[in-house]
Design brief:
The protein has one domain. 74% of the residues lie in helices and 0% in strands. It is built from 7 helices and no strands. Helix 2 packs antiparallel against helix 5, helix 2 runs parallel beside helix 6 and helix 3 crosses helix 5. The two termini are 27 Å apart.
Length: 170
């Protein structure tokens, strides 16, 4: 949370100021909405690491998934026109709840009480993402790390220590 404090304040407060966007929301309420969002997004990132085998692959995952996540928030296509499948998928993404709550606060002057559904949905996603991140770490990544270490012990030329260190194992 300490690492993300400055970027969150910059993106949620100073960037809209620079572009002259309306800022009718209470900054403390916006920060309160951002706390479960940052936690849920970091846990979602740990969950999505199951799809990444190398550090460089994160950039590809980010590029391809960011467009989908922007569409799912309703920023470029209205959510009420989405099929029920995509609507549910959008509800599973923390960015949907944060962006909609943030827009309601900044553009309409809503308070945290008025966007409490968004706030509580973000807090609901925190334990769900935690459980998913734990399952990914426990049953996918640890098994992958153990197989890499076993392969390097059987045949040192299969995986070098540099490969293990590159993937955060050695």
């Amino acid at each position: 949370m300490i690492v993300y404090t400055v970027p969150v304040i910059y993106v949620l407060h100073y960037v809209p100021l620079m572009f002259g966007f309306p800022q009718y929301g209470n900054f403390l309420h916006i920060i309160c909405l951002a706390v479960p969002f940052v936690i849920a997004v970091s846990l979602m990132g740990q969950t999505l690491q199951a799809f990444v085998n190398e550090r460089e692959s994160v950039f590809l995952l980010f590029v391809f998934s960011s467009v989908v996540f922007v569409f799912l928030t309703g920023a470029s296509w209205p959510r009420y026109l989405m099929s029920p499948l995509w609507y549910v998928v959008g509800d599973c993404v923390p960015g949907t709840w944060m962006s909609n709550g943030y827009v309601l606060m900044q553009a309409n002057g809503a308070t945290l009480f008025q966007v409490q559904h968004h706030y509580w949905m973000l807090w609901l996603q925190v334990p769900v993402m935690f459980i998913l991140a734990y399952v990914v770490e426990r049953y996918i990544n640890r098994r992958r790390y153990r197989s890499w270490i076993a392969a390097s012990e059987d045949n040192p030329k299969v995986l070098t220590r540099i490969d293990l260190a590159k993937n955060g194992v050695g």
